[in-house]
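So, does this match?
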Amino acid sequence: MSATLFVNASQVVTCNGPPRARRGAEMRDARVLDGAAVAVEGETIAAVGSPAELERAFPGAARVDCARGVLTPGLVDSHTHAIFGRPRASEHEMRAAGLDYMAIAERGGGIHASMRDLHGRGEDELVALARARLARLASYGTTTVEVKSGYGLTVDDELRSLRAIARLAAELPMRLVPTWLGAHEIPHAARATPAARAAHVAMLTEEMLPMVAAEELARFADVFCEPGVFTVEESRTILAASRAHGLELKLHADELRPSGGAELAAELGAVSADHLGAIGAAGVAALAHAGTVATLLPGTMLFLGKGTQAPARALIDAGAAVALATDFNPGTSPTVNFPLILTLGVSELHLSASEALVAATVNGAAALALADHVGQISPGFSADLALFEIEDFRELPYWYGDRRCIGTWVRGKPCHPYHLRLG
């Protein structure tokens, strides 16, 4: 099997260590090597060491000149909503005028607006729109992306969204992880009476979910557990049914108001609890003692103009595993710039650069149950790499808003050849 050596990097950030989420103080060490080289054979990392050692061990290997840049694990974006139609720019102005998330939803905006828009779009169009967006995500150093449904809400529209994700996963070099989010919002008609609401939950669990599972269209199930959307008990019902159909669990939890979502995620052993902008002390304690990853989305809180962020320091200091993700979506976080999220991780969440990078690689992989082979530059792991035009890894969150990605590789193959130097 032919090998490729990645040489001439100023730093290699390996994030190497146990194949699991890093918790608490473990997040402080991203394992930075100066002047190291990386050998790739096929789809996996073969070795990390000095250039001279790897030159002897892999004679005749092809070379990628890293041009004194910084080589990191590919960024793992563990929370996106990349399947949607038109953007919702008008809502940005509504928020500036003083309307909050729920007020916009009551006027027919928010998820309902994206639902109406998606209803008129075919699968081919959804694939084309998402393909361009995912290419932009890749251009910032992202190599693994979780993609949710959730703007369909009807059986046909949700299945069409998930089938579009499956087509993209087969076509693109990026690693895509599909999540069913049929419980993203409650249609207006289902809010009319308690019986109508119960019938909607039954439709999700007894009609839509079995079809999703039968076609193997999703690895995860997710629910928007929030006052005004799905209650804790409704979320429990949907997630229990999802687990019975073989799906792993995620949860939108405590985004805008504390509701017990984080505690539910910990209780059920969900892989991740996401958002957590309004998590309480009990939720922090629950996640600190559970295997559930706390996935924080600081871009969302910034874009919503909240002025507050999830308590990242309290979570880490309590011993929780924290991941970062973009929450890329058309209404509340329309960004594909993952390094910008690292900037917010440092500036808004008060993480160190090491903690932010671990949150975007190893812990992002753990939030997708992939930490056994994704998220670190270590022998035996998938050769998912990102190369940045910087000299010190701390510059990645420092040059905020700038695109410094030179190239990415997924399973050893070029994913985003922005301007690679191959030798």
Q: What stands out?
A: The longest strand covers residues 175-183. Residues 3-73+375-417 form a domain with the Urease, subunit C; domain 1 fold (CATH 2.30.40.10).
